[in-house]
Write a structure and sequence with these properties.
The complex is a heterodimer of chains A (about 110) and B (about 110). In chain A, about 0% of the residues lie in helices and about 45% in strands. Chain A is built from no helices and eleven strands. In chain A, the strands form two sheets. In chain A, strands 2, 4, 5, 6, 9, 10 and 11 form a seven-stranded mixed β-sheet that branches. A four-stranded antiparallel β-sheet of chain A has the order 1-3-8-7, with no helix packed on it. With about 110 residues, chain B is an all-beta fold. In chain B, about 0% of the residues lie in helices and about 60% in strands. In chain B, strands 2, 4, 5, 9, 10 and 11 form a six-stranded mixed β-sheet that branches. Chain B has a five-stranded antiparallel β-sheet with strand order 1-3-8-7-6, with no helix packed on it. In chain B, strand 9 (about 85-95) and strand 10 (about 100) form a beta hairpin. Chain B is globular. The chains are: A mainly beta (about 110), B mainly beta (about 110). The interface between A and B is medium-sized, with 20 and 24 residues.
């Protein structure tokens, strides 16, 4: 079934650890996005990609990095996690030339 | 700056009543306006959208209206049901990449 997958769904880690949040989509979409959302609050764009080898920073300053080596895969990495990174991270994707965005289930990250 | 204002932040209605959520956007070049519904612990789901060349769009019990001159758009839900209870986000495309800028969300509670 065509969908957007995120792993892990929940993660609790200690300060200073390096982590990678995975996002994969089988939708055949070119554009992919990462948003940060505190529970029930607005979504903030932190990274986006037009396609393979394309990555851009979004509006919200983030200490994370992304890569886009394969069309279906858009991982997000935090080199050194801090308590301020505690949040939900949502991956989304969309077709090139289209405006609609579809979201994955999210990763809820807690940094202790 | 690029922003979307959304009101009210919370809305409580009785089952069967209508609910209206309003958003105002800042960029006159915005041309795509989606609405997302996010249930507790779930991903945001696209429920309806409208483009700048259309003034109104309906899908069963939900409708969206757009006033380009005033730069505002609204979500209308008729005959509300308890399962409509969720946080609703409006958004508008802004910038060269047509990124989505989200409103701050409206928590809708429909009481039986």
């Amino acid at each position: 079934e065509a969908d957007i997958y995120q792993t892990p769904r929940y993660l609790v880690i200690g300060t200073g650890k390096k982590i990678t949040l995975e996002c994969s989509q089988t939708m055949g979409h070119d554009k992919m996005y990462w948003y940060q959302q505190d529970p029930g609050m607005e979504l903030h764009l932190i990274h986006y990609s037009y396609g393979v080898n394309s990555t851009e920073k979004g509006d919200l300053s983030s200490e994370s990095t992304v890569s886009r080596i394969r069309t279906e895969h858009f991982p997000l990495t935090l080199e050194s996690a801090r308590p301020s990174h505690t949040s939900q991270y949502l991956c989304a994707s969309g077709l090139a030339g289209a405006d609609e965005q579809y979201f994955g289930p999210g990763t809820r990250l807690t940094v202790t | 700056g690029e922003n979307v204002e959304q009101h009210p932040s919370t809305l409580s209605v009785q089952e069967g009543d209508s609910a209206v959520i309003k958003c105002t956007y800042s960029d006159s070049a915005s041309n795509y306006f989606p609405w997302y519904k996010q249930e507790l612990g779930k991903r945001p789901q696209l429920i309806i959208d409208i483009r700048s060349n259309v003034g109104e769009k309906k899908d069963q019990r939900i409708a969206v209206t757009l006033n380009k001159t005033a730069k505002h758009f609204s979500l209308h839900i008729t005959e509300t049901q308890p399962e409509d209870s969720a946080v609703y986000f409006c958004a508008a495309t802004m910038g060269g990449f047509q990124k989505l800028v989200f409103g701050t969300g409206t928590r809708l509670l429909v009481s039986p």
